[in-house]
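Batch queue: ligand-bound targets. Current item pairs a single chain with nicotinamide-adenine-dinucleotide. No template structures supplied; prediction is de novo from sequence plus SMILES. Inputs echoed for audit trail.
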Amino acid sequence: MPTPVDIAPASGKLGVLLVGLGAVSTTTIAGVLAVRNGFAKPIGSLTQMGTVRLGKRTENRSPKISDVVPLSSLDDLVFGGWDIFEDDCYAAARTAGVIEPALLDQVRPELEKIRPWPAVFDQRYVKRLDGPNVKKGKNKKDLAEQVIADIHKFKADHHLERLVMVWCGSTEIFATESAAHQTIESFERALEKNDTDIPSSMIYAYAAIREGIPYANAAPNLTADIPALVDLAAKTGSPLAGKDLKTGQTLLKTIIAPGLKARLLGVEGWYSTNILGNRDGEVLDDPESFKTKEESKKSVLDYILQPQLYPDLYENLCHVVRINYYPPRGDNKEGWDNIDLVGWLGYKMQLKINFLCRDSILAAPIVLDVALFLDLAKRANMRGIQEWLSFYFKSPVHAPGLYPEHDLFIQLMKLKNTLRYLKGEELITHLGREYYD
Ligand SMILES: NC(=O)c1ccc[n+]([C@@H]2O[C@H](COP(=O)([O-])OP(=O)(O)OC[C@H]3O[C@@H](n4cnc5c(N)ncnc54)[C@H](O)[C@@H]3O)[C@@H](O)[C@H]2O)c1
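Prediction returned. Tokens below.
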């Protein structure tokens, strides 16, 4: 039997720091409050409802994940966060319009107590937004110190044992790695010099990682996935995860594409379009923010279908992704996919998918799971990039020189095997010869 990893107990309160108290964050917070008061069920959350098979199929051992590894209980979560708008969490949830008022009202007093701290924000990185609740500082280093001061105060005020941070802010404009991002020294110099290569999201990520706090990015923009912050995370012991939550259309893509490839069905074209009317949709209406999202959404099929290995099936795949801002729909996104398939002897077929989903309802359980699993990783002394959390993301962060794993089923196997490894249980290979030998 392998040896279990030492994991510190999940004792005391866990502070969940959310950057951006918009639709995703408020749906997560209100949802956790509703669940812990018994008003609703945590559907979609692996940490709350999932099981993991241990041992051989003949053993019939499939305990709940929360009974296998020590996770913080929902009762021990305390939420805090930053936003450029001053609305408390109840008002922000009403604006987001995801959870119906009757349910929100049941947890209203607790939601009203969560008021956003002034944000680090610069419109240069999110063109379609502007708000009054913004920090002023000498330079970006000073702003990072202010974020750290907010974190210390939050920790002391609520007697928190540990913290995690998740960026749930708007998608920033497209950026690529630059010289400023290469080392901790170059990054800190860039903060002092107010370098434009450091967007607001990186300032929060730096603050968390410097404090040894686990950090995840729910959006597609470049934040902690740069050498300077990955190195800093290794030094301070911060686990990292990201990026861009895998919800609606991309979730379905990573469910369907592995199936088509498994049966060696060719794909000539995959056209995805959707309408979305929430604030996220408004921000993504800006071409520079959309480019960040587009890159994240488009990479998925290339990695899953592997055209370099299967040129006859996928070499000329035409993949188009569109997001149209359409206010009447609010958070209730509608997505259409048209897939042009090729079968035996080159005969063509089509598959059409029409998904009427709720963006933040799909995202909230992911934010909760990622926060709880990152805290577990921290207590298990796992630092840096946590590839086993790829399951939750459209653009999984990964080690340099490695291609990211996008197939949802491989990702789930990786996640569950990591839990087995942590507990010193046999990894499951699905070979299964022993049942027949
Ligand atoms: N909902 C989903 O299914 C989903 C899936 C994948 C990714 N995402 C990403 O998650 C993020 C949040 O989505 P949402 O639907 O909640 O959007 P939202 O617009 O409702 O919320 C984002 C919030 O972030 C705030 N914000 C922006 N910049 C900030 C800053 N620098 N500091 C503090 N607050 C800041 C905004 O004021 C807003 O309240 C977006 O980037 C979105 O692309 C969402």
